[in-house]
Amino acid sequence: MPELSWQSLQAADRAAIWHPYASAHDGPEVFPVVSASGVRLRLADGRELIDGMASWWCAIHGYNHPAMNRAVQAQLETMSHVMFGGLTHPPAVKLAQLLTSLTPASLDRVFFSDSGSVAVEVALKMALQYWYSVGNPGKQKVIALRNGYHGDTFGAMAVCDPVTGMHHLFGEMLPRHLFAPAPNCAFDGPCPDSEMVAITDLLSQHHREVAAVIVEPVVQGAGGMRFYSPDYLVKLRALCDAFDVLLIFDEIATGFGRTGKLFALQHAAVEPDILCLGKALTGGYMTLAATLCNQRISRGISDGEAGAFMHGPTFMGNPLACATAIASIELLLSQPWQRQVANLNKALGEGLAPAAELPAVAQVRTLGAIGVIELEEPVDMQTVQPMFVERGVWVRPFGKLVYAMPPYVMGTEDVAALTAAMVDVVAQL
Question: Is 139 a catalytic residue?
Fold first, then answer.
């Protein structure tokens, strides 16, 4: 197939493809990428962009990494896929062993799926089926946090913020859950007891019908890039224990080093009953997610009426994806990733600091390899996106947020160029 020009790619795309969160007919301009290497995307017209998004936060090693490429090629020569019903294979077994060794000791069972949203669906189904199996079928509600985001499938949408989230159009069709205020306690400070009053009241009133509480530990991602105190998680774990409610941590965005710890839960040393992982799990090479649970959950479900957990994705435990995830985790652990993330945090903080003085800016904040400029007003994507491309960077704002979550391998010069572009564009607004 001959290489298409920039114009041809754009025209063919516009004629046939529907992009996420975009109109099918009058959507914003898309930018054709023909290759990627390191932290750069090469466009069809020859320009290169420094990628500040790590492809929606998952390409933590950058692109076209030799070790990752070798792992994919080696597994491809052996077996690209086999059904997981009644069969198993070495990559899935090794990956499960790796995940259970890195996460809290109580999480000893791994259920593989295809994406972060499905990992959340699995977690919710685990919680509901657990209570049904142990003779308490009335526990069918979930408590989630305002400003939370957990995915785009129906179960996941139902635990996203119903007011400020992206899914209010579907509100009448979704299960009705309960929502507590988002934590309003700084990451580097304690969580006062006053912050726990509302969720304590919810649990006190509804614990007989509540199966689980689901939160994004320490960082609320797509719901606002909000950082909060790990102490909140400590107090939340105690509340869940007191009211006999399960605790689900959604670490799809934060897992594998993004906050400066391998998992965000480590900031609080708290163990959930169920843990969702995705995004950086395969270093951005393949789609794969995992939901881990403790023996209370797995034994309760397995000993129940069904005798099995009632979920089974076609591509569950895909060997190619599992082998890629193993390679990504081993690559991460073999490098000084904590120093890399600390260096990114320092460079992001220094580079974004000037934005705090701009009139359009409400706040500038950083945590780990996350840098955020929060604006007073939402951005116009059709205007802002080309402005970043013209400055040689790829940043994908949403709502009031102009933020970066770059690959961990990005050097200080590239971070400086990325943050300078972010500040410059915000200044133009």
Answer: no
Q: What is the CATH architecture of 69-334?
A: 3-Layer(aba) Sandwich (3.40)
| Cα–Cα dist 389/366, whole Å | 23
Amino acid at 236: L
Task: Report if pTM > 0.85.
Answer: yes
Model pLDDT for residues 18-63, shown as the tens digit of each residue: 999 999 998 889 999 999 999 999 999 999 999 999 999 999 999 9
Contact 316, 289 (CB under 8 A): no
CA distance 241 to 113: 28
Q: What percent of the chain has pLDDT over 70?
A: 99
pLDDT in tens, 254-294: 999 999 999 999 999 999 999 999 999 999 999 999 999 99
**Does 250 participate in catalysis according to the annotation?**
yes
Q: For residue range 314-345, what is the model confidence (pLDDT) as tens digits?
A: 999 999 999 999 999 999 999 999 999 999 99
Cα separation, 250 vs 221, in Å, equals 10
**Candidates 231, 250, 273, 414; catalytic one:** 250
Return the HEC string of 338-359. Answer: HHHHHHHHHHHHHHHHHHHHCC
Q: Are 182 and 148 in contact (CB under 8 A)?
A: yes
Cα–Cα distance measured from residue 163 to residue 147, given in angstroms and rounded to the nearest whole number? 9
Q: Which of 21, 45, 241, 380 is catalytic?
A: 21
Q: Is 227 helix (H, G, I), strand (E, B) or coil?
A: strand
Q: Domain ranges in the chain? A: 6-64+335-428, 69-334
Out of 141, 279, 285, 400, which one is annotated catalytic? 279
The amino acid at residue 349 is G
pLDDT, the chain, mean: 96
Indicate if 69-334 has the same CATH topology as 6-64+335-428: no
- CA separation for the pair 280, 263 (Å, rounded): 11
Q: What angle do CA 379, 414, 382 make, to 5 degrees?
A: 20
Question: What pLDDT is recorded for position 2?
Answer: 57
pLDDT at 1 over 70: no
Q: Quickly name the fold that domain 6-64+335-428 has.
A: Aspartate Aminotransferase, domain 1 (3.90.1150)
- Known active-site residue 132: no
Among residues 149, 285, 403, 408, which one is catalytic?
Answer: 149
Give CA–CA dist 345/370, Å, rounded: 7
Dist. CA 89–CA 406, nearest whole Å: 33
